[in-house]
Amino acid sequence: MRVNYLGLAHFLTAVLAIVAGAVVVFRRKGTRFHKWCGRLYLLSMLTVNISALSIYRLWGHFGPFHIAAVISLATVIMGAQAAWRKKPARHWKVAHAYWMSWSYVGLLAAAVSESATRYLDYDFGWTVGLATAAVIAIGAMTINRRLPPLLGASQP
Q1: Rounded to an integer, what distance in angstroms lies between the CA atom of residue 28 and that of residue 36?
Q2: Which of 11, 52, 82, 94 is least surrounded, with the fewest CB atoms within 10 Å of its CB?
Q3: What one-character-per-residue DSSP string does the chain give?
Q4: pTM for the whole thing?
Q5: Closest CA to 115 of 99, 136, 130, 137
Q6: What is the pLDDT of residues 75-102, one digit of tens each?
Q7: How far apart are CA 128 and CA 155, in angstroms?
Q8: How many of the other CB atoms lie within 10 Å of CB of 83?
């Protein structure tokens, strides 16, 4: 049996990002533990997305999942840089919370889509589209309902 190390690294760091992200979501914010788990999440997401940009076996060329990886990289980097630079000065926590929340929603959408296509015997395109749309819709409702109270009703 031949091991695909790139695919294995992609999978394992995706699982690590899901776990680290869940810890960040459900634990108190701003603590040393939050920052440590956030750095682990960032490193995992960078690895997941860089490895995703290196996988071409589905179409043989740059495709929609590569575009999703670029968007994912952008959200996680924007969220991290807001916390690192503390900018915008008065609203960096809001920017950080929203960018990182959307980063996590994207990660969950990818996980649900991947699982659905592997385990359900439906058309690939519809399965990915519906799974992604469902997770993004639930994520949007959750973000819009939960973040403003946590941030003092601030909006980005």
Answers
A1: 12
A2: 11
A3: ----HHHHHHHHHHHHHHHHHHHHHHSPTTSHHHHHHHHHHHHHHHHHHHHHTT--TTTSS--HHHHHHHHHHHHHHHHHHHHHHT-STTTHHHHHHHHHHHHHHHHHHHHHHHHHHHHS-S-HHHHHHHHHHHHHHHHHHHHHHHHHHHTTS---
A4: 0.90
A5: 130
A6: 999 999 999 999 888 899 999 999 999 9
A7: 30
A8: 19
